[in-house]
Amino acid sequence: MRRSERRNNLQICPRRDSDTGGSDLWSSTLPLDHGGAPNTAKVTNMIEATDREIYFLKLKYSVIERIFLQQVVYPEIRELCINNGCELVVYDLQLGLRDEFCFGYILRSFSQKIMTQCSSPSRRAFFTLETRSLLLSPRYYLDELKEPANYVLKPVSANIEKYLNDSEEVYREGYRQWEKNMIHLQHVLLQRSPLEFQNNVCKSVIHESLERFIFSGVWPKEVTFWLRRKFSDRNEGTTNWSLNANFFDIAVDRIDDVAQSRLESLADRLSRQINPLQKLDVKVKWSGSGINPDEGHHADYLTEFCSRYQQMLLGRIEEEIQRKQEPDIRCNKSVSRGLTKTLYQEIQQQTLMCQNMAEHFYGKERILNSIETYIQTGHVDNLETAQGTIRPLVLHGVAGVGKSSVLAQIANQYCTLEGWTSAVAVVRFVGASTRCETLEQLLQSVREHLSVLVGLPVMSVYEADGLSLDALLGKVPPETPLIVFLDGLEQLLDDPPNVSWLPKELPSHIRMLISVRTDSTWMKAVQDRLSSSGFLIEVPPMTVDAVIDAINSRFSQKNLVVPTEIDTQLRGQLSISTPLHTVVLTILLLENGIALEKKVTFINMSTEKLINEALQFLEDSFSKMYIKKIALYLALSRYGLADAEILDVLSRDKDVMEGIVPYQKSLFRVVPCLLWLYMKEFLRPILLERTSHGLLIYKWKYAIVEDAVKARYQNLLSNCEKLLLSYYQGTLKCPLFSKKKPSIVESIKSTLDANMCHIRSQNMQYAQCFNGRKLDELPWLLYQRGELDELANYLLSMPWILAKLSTSGLMVVLREFDMCLSKLPGGQRRAGVLFVRDLLSRLAAICCEDPKQLPIQLHLRSKYGDIAVPDDLPMVRKFFDAYENDPSPLLMPSPQQTKMMGRVYRSLASLDESHVFGGFFNFRNELDHVISVSPDRGQIQVWNIRSNEAVRTLVGLQQPKDVKVCDTYKAVVLCSRELKVYDLDSGELVCSLKGVLNIRMPFFGVHDADHTIAMARNRMYVNMMSNVTGEMVTTFKVGEDRFMDSMLTSENGERCVCGDAVQKPFPLLVWDLHKRKLIYDLRIQGHEFLTKVSAISKDGHYVTCACKRHYVLRDEVIDKMLLYHRTLMFVLDILLVSSNDYYADEPVTKTFMELEDPDPTFIVVYDLQSGSLFKKWKGTYSPTGVAMSQDLVVTGHEDGTVCVWDLVSGSLKHQLIGHSRGPDFLRLSNNGKRCVSWDGTGRDNTIRLWDLEKGVCLGTFYSGCKISCCAISPDGSMVLVGLPGIEKLVTLLPPGESQPVREGSVFGDASRSGAVFDVSE
């Protein structure tokens, strides 16, 4: 078969005006999916592609109905998806195709391939015939690449040359001749072939799809819809059989009974399989002209059809959106343990890239052996270096030689090397993600990763004194081997190269592998830096045998074999090659081998020429303009394009549409999606797939391919850049409905007349999310087009910067500032851009941790602190004034503290941390005063929170850490390991309590004004001591060999609850302090209590605690089975003790209730009056903190949410969102109506004040420096904060509120106000 004939089999253009349907017999010789009197069965299927895209695959639909769905139903649903952070992609595989192409094997292949993406991996399916005959030979060619060889239908042009004529009249005559021949072929096959052949081979595309996906149960019912059109009032006696052939199966001049019988059987099976709620039957009156929207009854039919289908579809779409909006549990759990979401996504992207590159590894075993030797010994081969110095290993070679695949292969298998099985890998491929393009981005990403490994907060790398790469490597413990992979340094957008960060020496447990192109400036810089050639390995080109093995492997994956003639040519003509050359060569061989009549002419072409050959093949196969434009769009985009974006842009490209629509005048203007799907499959080995803001995007994987595309189509570069820029600017307008929505028929007619299609709206922010794709691509396109003033306007816009920081991160934003400054001429605009760029760098920690705080911080620092806005830069002043429009509430310092806050913001980098508050503590019946402790200074102070003055100061204490108020002015203070009672009014030591506490668990509480209870040093007893004499009063003994790990005491002193860390299952021990006895030993079989997350009500009636399942690991298999597959029933054991004993010698077990299907970590509440389990709350994320009032329980969780539970009903009242990490510090006001939350670990340095009744955030505070402690005032009106280096507490007020004024707010004896007492002993 000639090459031109094979290529013409791929030619595509939309149907002509007169085509309203068509038979599917040409791909299968039997039309079972499109017609039949009086009903017509059609199927639409929904499939899922990525975590933010919803795909629809539509097979064989009537053209008019499909156009109306594309124009009326899907645009509204797409807007719904976009506003909820998803994307809708409609794959109508036949809309817009040439008639004969609808029946070809390529459509059949892609129909099943696209459907298979959501089920299980499968080989590409083709239409085949396994018989030879003279009738078939003119219309089919033998494809010997298949194993076994198969017959494939030839294109129309192979037998009818008129079909290729530019004249529409000649073309249609050729098409009619071809159609007549194919109908004849169908009848011959049906009459002469056995029944078994008809049943197995003579099937339509949709019939095979139904068998393979629907009837087999591969696809669930909820993702399948059945739309059926029913004709009525059809007079068969006056039927236009030519027209009927577009809607029914016709045998000469009558309805085909055989086809109708098969159709009825198929419909019957389908009706039993499809959910009745997802089945749509619509009646339509038969017309001699087919479906005509101008006829009234047909307009009504189309209106009903679209409305009912949209209503049916919306419910399923909303469920899908809700599912996709569910939080990424794995991501949020990782974030709660120290990662940032940005770092988590970066690691995911790099892992995907590593796996992808490893697939292209061929041969090079010697290189692998040398690298493995380096990892195990620190040297290459047997090289002995001076003093055994270990240096980074450098892989170098020419472009496309396979350096990346070598590194990827090592990264995938290093853990099999002896001594490195537990090693940790930090892998970065330059350009693999949107956050790894410059050296600054690369190093920052690696430093973030290393900071997590060594136990430092990720945000610490953004601080002014953040650790360098060398310093972080030095902190990696020797017991944790580490390998750092850095690939493609020459691709970094930095000139000249800077390698001062590259370590000259490495610790013995650390290895570093980097790759760089031999002829790049980076290679020379690296060589000069390392000053050693012993750690350089050159990656050689592939050998001929390796190339042939790679080609054979690729063919076998496609279930194909390389013809003997081609294999001989390869071995005789092929010279040494590179992996990229091999990949492109394989692509061409797969598509052209049989068509080239066993003679391959491009074997020894250069890689650039091979790429051009592949592009030429696509141009010959499709519309040339289409191939040129799509190749350029992929090259010109910054990070790549998603499916929906590609179809949008192509459909609005006039040159593309005119090139593939030679006769179309009135049909819906949309590019056939099969064009892009085929090209994507054809070029998949050289396309880079990665995710961006939840969408799967595509871009050229190799820079050499991108350069070749730009060079080949240089004359179209400017137009493509302009169109792509207009797309993301939102100036490619699409018709939208006005408030008074026209009828469906009127709206579609107006759009058809305008030759327009619906495209994605390009708002910066949608209802539920930012438009991350616009935020990523628009600055790059403006930069490429040289529109620097407009780019500067975006960079000086606070809403734009906040959106960019929230979606892309600080490093990407700084990169865009640098791009703009590299070409922006001098003047006020340049000065403003430079000023804002430096400002964001200084506030890096805030920008990364909580960008929403940026306007607030700029306002505070410009008003009180270290930032002065230049008067000659009005655009910068406008940037700062964005705070005035910021709707987020801010906790503001009281008016008396503005000067003090100015000092904080002016001296953030040099604050003296020698004075740090250790905590704030409230009095029981005092609203205006609080207690603070300063362990380092040995100081306790009593503060008037209204005047912000210290009314009492006690100095000379030994490391005061904790305070429990026992009387109006008396308090028990934990000093080092001892308890002392002080009169805070008179500044006197009342007494020292007998004994010392456990240094790790110094737990104590107040029973009443005269007694304190404390856990003994050996953790086996609870002691009660007198606050008057300091002597021991009594002891509560838990039991032999039982050790407590926590202690809670109710505010009224009636109940004490301790956790036991020894007994299995871990119990909660409850004492009645008045009766001085153990009343409950609470356990849940197979579980353990996490007493670090626990609280007790003031009256001692309830205790709440986190609880998780306890696993006994026997072996790996049993552990996995228990963890993932078993649903167990647990029994709660309540241990009752004798009222005459202080501890239980022989406890009585009582089966109380069952806990069904427990989560690994959940919250339980016990009623301490009855000893029963009162409430159990299961959440998606483990709790990190808990607080309790008389009627509410407030819990913080790993994902940063704060949940408010009703203690009586057990319902979830509010789920409060705002923290980026799980808050472990929760404190309630005295009335329980307000709560302050904070992450004491420092991973989320924001403090938030919540209204628990309304479920709203009253205000947020971010200091810009480490917060030492915080609290809420007793009346809930203020938040109290301790900052390092600040000797006074900071009081913060919600917006719109002022300090309540109370008369007589005096602490104790007024004459002692401001007194300082030295209580040192």
What average pLDDT do the residues reach?
76
So what's the overall shape? globular
How many strand segments?
52
Outline the low-pLDDT stretches.
Answer: 1-61, 102-108, 118-137, 735-742, 751-755, 1112-1159
Separate helix tally: 38
Q: Structural class of the secondary elements?
A: alpha+beta
The largest sheet has its strands arranged as 31-32-33-34-37-38
Distance between the termini: 105 Å
Alpha carbon gyration radius: 37 Å
What proportion strand?
15-25%
Walk me through this protein's architecture.
The chain is of the alpha+beta class. Strand 2 (53-59), helix 3 (63-83) and strand 3 form a beta-alpha-beta unit. The chain is globular and about 115 Å long. Keywords: Repeat, WD repeat. Pfam families: WD40, WHD_NWD1.
Q: Can you summarize this structure?
A:
Residues 1-23 are annotated as: Disordered. The chain is 34% helix and 23% strand. It has 1321 residues and is an alpha+beta fold.
Descriptors for this entry?
globular, 6-stranded antiparallel sheet, alpha+beta, NWD1/2-like winged helix-turn-helix domain-containing protein, WD40/YVTN_repeat-like_dom_sf, 1321 residues, disordered N terminus
Fold topology:
Blueprint: H1 3-8, H2 25-28, E1 39-50, E2 53-59, H3 63-83, E3 87-92, H4 105-116, E4 140-143, E5 150-153, H5 168-192, H6 195-200, H7 205-214, E6 224-232, H8 241-244, E7 250-251, E8 254-255, H9 257-273, E9 279-285, H10 296-325, H11 329-336, H12 341-358, H13 365-377, E10 393-397, H14 403-413, E11 424-429, H15 439-453, H16 469-475, E12 482-487, E13 510-517, H17 521-530, E14 536-538, H18 544-557, H19 564-573, H20 579-592, H21 607-621, H22 624-636, E15 641-642, H23 643-651, H24 654-660, H25 673-682, E16 687-692, E17 695-700, H26 703-712, H27 717-729, H28 744-754, H29 772-785, H30 788-795, H31 798-807, H32 810-823, H33 828-842, H34 844-849, H35 854-864, H36 874-880, E18 892-893, H37 898-906, E19 919-922, E20 929-934, E21 939-944, E22 949-955, E23 960-965, E24 970-975, E25 978-983, E26 988-992, E27 1004-1008, E28 1011-1015, E29 1021-1026, E30 1032-1037, E31 1044-1049, E32 1055-1060, E33 1068-1072, E34 1077-1084, E35 1087-1096, E36 1102-1109, H38 1116-1125, E37 1129-1136, E38 1148-1156, E39 1161-1167, E40 1172-1178, E41 1183-1188, E42 1192-1197, ...
Parallel strand pairs: 2-3, 6-9, 10-13, 10-14, 11-12, 12-13, 22-52
Antiparallel strand pairs: 1-2, 1-6, 4-5, 7-8, 15-17, 16-17, 18-51, 19-20, 20-21, 21-22, 23-24, 24-25, 25-26, 27-28, 28-29, 29-30, 31-32, 32-33, 33-34, 34-37, 35-36, 36-39, 37-38, 39-40, 41-42, 42-43, 43-44, 45-46, 46-47, 47-48, 49-50, 50-51
Helix pairs in contact: 3-10, 12-14, 18-20, 20-21, 21-22, 21-26, 22-24, 22-26, 22-27, 27-29, 29-30, 30-32, 32-33, 35-37
Pfam families: WD40 (PF00400), WHD_NWD1 (PF25469)
WD repeats: 1192-1215
Organism: Paralvinella palmiformis
